[in-house]
Amino acid sequence: MDGELKKVLHNIADTIRQLSIEAIQKANSGHPGLPLGCAEIGAYLFGFALNHDPKNPTWINRDRFILSAGHGSMLLYSCLHLAGFDISLDDIKNFRQLNSKTPGHIEYEPLFGIETTTGPLGQGIGNSVGLALAYKILAEKFNTPEYTLFDNKIYCLASDGCMMEGSSSEASSLAGHFKLNNLIIIYDSNEICLDGPVSESFSENTKERYRSYGFDIFEINGHDFNDIDSVISSLKKHQEKPALIIARTVIGKGSPKAGTHKVHGAPLGVDDVKATKKALNLPEEDFFIPLDVKKYFQKRILKQSESEKKWNELFKNWSKASPHLFKEFEIMKNQSIPYDLEERLKNLEIKAPIAGRSASQSVINFLADLLPYLYGGSADLSSSDMTMMKKYDVISSKSYKGRNIKYGVREFAMGAISNGLFLSGMIIPFAGTFLVFSDYMKSTIRLASLSHFKVIYQFTHDSIFLGEDGPTHQPIEHLASLRSIPNLHVIRPADSYEVKMAWIAALNYEGPTALVLSRQALPDISQTRVPYSEGVGKGAYIVKTEKRKPDFTLFATGSELQLAFGVAEKLEKLGKDVRIVSMPCWQSFEEQTEEYKESVLGGDLGKRVSIEALSDFGWHKYIGREGIAICMNTFGLSAPMSDLAQEFGFTVENIVDRII
């Protein structure tokens, strides 16, 4: 590496250290260990290796940098500020303060150069695998012999903690399986975790583990620019497999607490900051940025803008040479939805009775031809959760032309990789498994919800009525758990028509959606056939109106809506007046006007009864303290569906006897 370049990169690394420890000290909160230990890695990537444009941070072919170890956020904020992204010095000074651009852990904001939300360890690796897979898909779809549209790299900086988390094992296993030769994971191996030395809890041979996954392995001194450059520059020229770079570093380098867990997750303290600056020969002035560093990045920004301009010219020529590909590119980038989608779906023939999962598969296969940006996968259950797009191949390391992803039994990785697929900006992913296994994905769903990622989950086998597989597979608390996540739309449709409308809702919502679907066949209900804007689009709507004043109002979702109609029929024979409300999506209902909510739930509705073969948690918000919840408050049993209905009281006779 050129001596002058090495000198300026050294100054950049020192500036990263200074900005990081001072911001953390000013906030009196944060993690100084990683920024001090990984400053050379950050300086090399942002000062030399990354091909991106800070003036157009969402350029589609940019290199991506994911800080999986999101607790080391000040490393990234310092790098982004120096590199010219929209993170000011005042933002650095406002680290961890209310409504600042620089929260304690990384939060998704691509306009600032922040590619994803990280903090819960390991998930950044999964996001990176998803991004790498997305770009392999896009490269195979759009690159031509004459024009290489997509050739970027995905860099991920991970920690010892990331390596310990099981999610990273799942995701890395898939990365090797798919031979993602655009993925570079840099492992900050400093042998220290929050509680003490890594040796107290982690003694595996990570190098051999990753080698067995199918990675190429490199070991470097993470403080030596020659070492860093020799590996990364080589990988930029030629890479056959996903790469793991094990970077040996000293956590908290330069501080009195260097090499100990005491520098991991707490501010250094005023005296230690002074001692660190003295040891590293840093300026005494707070938040100081040397002039040579500023000038270097000014020149680099101009150079990067020129690089993007060249790509834009290439893109222009490519679009003229391949108009059919350009048309598909525009559809995928804009993720446009046909204006008449509702009408088209209404005309899609789905014969009832049919399981919710099977109705959804019909919709998926119908949408696949209309929406080229729709990609899906399942955790070894596509033949059971019905997520396979039948006209399209399965993606493999030999061909990325398919639209189906087989994740194997790796639900956690599936969730994190789905988030990464979305981050490409060109793909809307859906992911399938049984509702009971949503627990394995919960942390990834939470981050998707926090970040407003448009990911669609197809959760099937949605109640005790899956039957003989028994309580290990029968979800009870899972629907309530998902409903509790802010920004997540959870939709439990009652028949094939509500399934169609649920897909419209998912495609139109700028955030994640969980479709919760039955294993058992369901009849169609004529009363659900109302326009989307008057039915499922409202989250809850009246499907049976009382004649005068209701003696009973029945609330139901999914397979229990048909049961509610049976209960209403029996009650009416007893001279009672009944209203029925279908409530497929509580979250959408809560977003409606107060006037609309009052029209559905307001006034004297008589005795309020909810019917749902899952936990009653949350229902009393709608039925009141005196309302009756016909729900599950125990685990299920292994038995045929009809026996379970009788055992747990989900029959017309049992419900009528209980509520009269």
Give your account of this protein's structure:
By secondary structure, this protein is α/β, with parallel strands linked by helices. The protein has 3 domains: 3-304, Rossmann fold, CATH 3.40.50; 341-528, Rossmann fold, CATH 3.40.50; 538-659, Rossmann fold (3-Layer(aba) Sandwich). The protein contains 26 helices and 20 strands. Strand 19, helix 24 and strand 20 form a beta-alpha-beta unit. Helix 17 (411-423) runs parallel beside helix 18 (438-451). The longest helix has 31 residues, at 291-321.
Question: Could you outline the blueprint of secondary structure elements for this entry?
Answer:
Blueprint: H1 3-27, H2 33-37, H3 39-49, E1 64-67, H4 73-83, H5 89-93, H6 123-142, E2 154-159, H7 160-164, H8 166-177, E3 183-189, E4 192-193, E5 196-197, H9 206-213, E6 216-221, H10 225-237, E7 243-248, H11 270-279, H12 291-321, H13 323-334, H14 341-346, E8 354-355, H15 356-370, E9 374-378, H16 382-386, E10 404-406, H17 411-423, E11 428-434, H18 438-451, E12 456-460, H19 478-483, E13 489-491, H20 496-508, E14 513-516, E15 521-522, E16 541-544, E17 552-556, H21 560-573, E18 578-582, H22 586-590, H23 594-601, E19 607-611, H24 620-623, E20 628-630, H25 641-647, H26 652-659
Parallel strand pairs: 1-2, 2-3, 3-7, 6-7, 9-10, 9-11, 11-12, 12-14, 13-14, 17-18, 17-19, 19-20
Antiparallel strand pairs: 4-5, 8-15, 16-18
Helix pairs in contact: 1-3, 1-4, 3-4, 3-10, 6-8, 6-17, 8-17, 12-13, 15-20, 17-18, 21-26
